[in-house]
Amino acid sequence: MKATQNPPTTGMVTTADLLRMAALYLRRHGWHQGTYYAPTTDIPTPPACAAGAIRIACAGRPVERFVQLDDDTIADYLTALDVFVDHLDVSAPMFFIDEDGYLLDEHTSPYSWNDDPARTAEQVITALKAAAEEWDRLHTAGSENR
What superkingdom heads the lineage (predicted)? Predict the structure, then answer.
């Protein structure tokens, strides 16, 4: 690097950063239930569900299908979604039992959790930020990544 060049000042984007970006997206652009994004064609930043906001945080734009993403972005999205699900499993477990009493899914579905009629935007934003805090607690020592 030449003496006149400025060194890069940005660090690595962590899973916690992506979850916080998703929470900020929802606060700024709105929350949605039922689909990843509110059906609109007139704005590039539609209201989103929790998973849709995580996709936007990873890709930088609304993305409906995995085929629209590169492998690294898919990996980032799946990791962030898994961290969010892990947080929900502890803080807001929601399990589905079939009519015979068998557990259908051992993890809380972020889609069902988001779409619960009693859910609020503030609960979703708070859960995304709490999942980010938990990731930081488990993966950083001071300000350094472990």
Answer: Bacteria
